Amino acid sequence: MFEVLEGGIQTTVQDFPGRVGYLALGTYPAGPMDHFAFRVANLLVGNSQGTAALEVTVGGLKARFHDRRVLAVTGADMHATLNGRPLRLWESVGVEPGDQLEMKTVKATGFRAYVAVSGAFDVPDYMGSRATFTVGGFGGFEGRGLKKGDRVPLGRGDGIDRLIGRRLRPSLRPPYASHWEIEAMRGPQADPDYLTPADMEFFFSHAWKVDRNSNRMGVRLESHKWQWARTSGGIAGGHPSNILDNGYAVWTVNVCGDQPIILVADGPSLGGFICNATLVYASTWKVGQLVPGRDTITFKEVTIEEATQRARDLDATISERSIDRG
Amino acid sequence: MPQASRVNPSVIDTLHAAGERPAVVYRYAGDRFLLLEYGEMVLDLTMNFRIFGLNEAIKRADIDGVIETVPALRSMLIQYDSLRLPTRELVETLKKLEDVIPAVDNLSIPSRRLELPMAFADQWTRSDIERYVKYTRQDAPNVINGHNIEYIASYNGLKDAEEVVQYLCATEWWNACIGFWPGLPFMFPLDPRYAIVTPKYNPTRPWTPEGAVGIGGPCVAIYPVASPGGYQLFGRTIPIFDLQQRNPAFKANPILLKPADRIQWVRVTDDELEAIRARVYDGTYRYKVVEYEALNVKAYRRFLDSVKDAVAAFQRRQAEAVKHIPIP
What we know:
The complex is a heterodimer of chains A (326) and B (328). With 326 residues, chain A is mainly beta. Helix content of chain A is 11%, strand content 29%.
């Protein structure tokens, strides 16, 4: 059992790839905002990569273990400690009953950390997943973020001794910065049908500032005066960003009027605004580490061939081959 | 129609219109999704019927690597595993399916028919509309006598709230797609003689009761949970979303409605609605759902043809009425 002493800003149970298969019923998948750090955390403690683990946003989580387990913390540096001693990120350690995990808040770069424990955070399966969907208030631990007094059951953790001291090879740890280059593909609604080539050139070259009003539903970027290829949205509405409602791909860039918003884990599944670019699978994890109100992004256009090669490379990286013992 | 080329890198491929089949555009939506669109950007339910025909064809084809489909008005979003199923291969398979989908006229779409009780201009929506006038916009032209229903009447050239109720109950409502919020339906009238339209709230309404039903443009939606909203409200129905799954209707998941459902409103009083809602939550109410009553598109199009003149007459009446009505 994992006893929560402080829940922090927003700490949720997630799994990967989340609640897949319900988009046609209006439900985005939820799941981790940074699937790279999430999957690696599970790999380090000997779980399968999709196992339910914690996503800690900004920080402030404090908790006590009541069982012997293996623990790994990955992602943003929140100065995590175990019984007051600094805990190394991207490495697994053993925990004993009574041990206390404490995370302060993000300092320099990065926004989310992941906490995996051997044997999983054992919350109920809801519609095929254990991920918390914050918008609908379901999944995860009682459909909400963790708070003081919560006692989250842990699954069985076997073979603890051989799982201690595993680490992601240092060369493979992603560098976090305050400016990010994020790979994306043009479309589905870009130039020349909806925006002008100049609009798209601006989109793929500008350093976009991440709005402070960003969360697990959408990561907002600054507004921009687009030229637009059309004067209105016709039957769909007066503004040229309006289209007849269609399904939204997860991790697409939705241009709502003048403002681009990256639709992320808990976003809306369908709507009537254009999406001018879509982040590629191998790069979505970067969005989870963007610091709202501070970080900037440049979108780098890639082809489908580059995107699938990057996906293969990423999946290959998150494997036993990338683990050493320091 | 957009062409796939260097100058339009969002477009993977296209098919020109041929006979009964509309033009098809296949667009990239990243490396895990593909967006397919039929025809032009116009509101045409027959395009939506073809989307459902395609959806059935994709299900039957059981394509390895296709993860899920998201039907919408004239488009379909497809999630797929591009590492297992290369994009080019998926598009070729989808293009071949266009040849096996029956012409729209020969489509028979599996469709459930649901009867949902509705309290028109009920006390619960009235209360949130009154709050809107008090706290958000005192001079809202879309609120007449404390509700939106008389505004809906005047905007469409109908006599009064009673005639709005008659219109809403005179047609089945086709659920073209579900989205935005879990379980939220986007519904259109199957009988266009009763196709009322309205502008949306300005600014939007901070409060809407769960189960409220409203119209924005030509589209009717049910609010699955209490939330902000922009549609003109006309009544309240029973729950379509229940996280706690307290009724057998929510046994499989907390979402009642599916794409391609047909909804018929059945008028009840506020007291009756309250009693039914209590029975929904204690598990004794049985939702009135008829399964597997397919929609025959050929018969439907014959029907559309037979009511053409009446539809045109109503549209003239609406066009005349709009001239004299303020927009919010």
